[in-house]
Design brief:
Layout: E1 2-7, E2 10-15, H1 16-75, H2 79-87, E3 92-94, E4 97-99
Antiparallel strand pairs: 1-2, 3-4
Length: 102
């Protein structure tokens, strides 16, 4: 049995088998495009999660660096303090009193 389809300016005759095959291909195409849309949505979500995770890692690294810097400042004198200490010259020390400290 053949089916007659009107397409554009002409008429096309096709068998029921060909029609069913085209219909199945169309259904498969729709299913594939639906799956592609789902995968694209999953990809968007994954990219967002990745970006969020990267931001969190960067923030944690910055916080860790700040904490490390603060602990180092507590243990070491500041650069200004180091310069002051290095310029200090003690001419004499009598009874624990320093004379000539600069």
């Amino acid at each position: 049995m053949s089916k007659i389809l009107k397409m554009g300016n002409g008429m096309i005759a096709m068998t029921q088998k060909e029609h069913d095959r085209l219909y199945i291909e169309e259904e498969n195409g729709w299913a594939k495009s639906q799956r592609i849309r789902e995968l694209e949505e999953e990809l968007k979500i994954t990219k967002f999660e990745l970006a969020t995770t990267k931001k969190e890692v960067a923030r944690l690294k910055a916080r860790e660096t700040k904490a490390m810097r603060e602990s180092r400042k507590q243990l070491e004198p500041s650069s200004y303090e180091r310069q002051r200490i290095s310029r200090r010259v003690v001419i004499s020390e009598i009874g624990g009193i320093r004379y000539g400290e600069y």
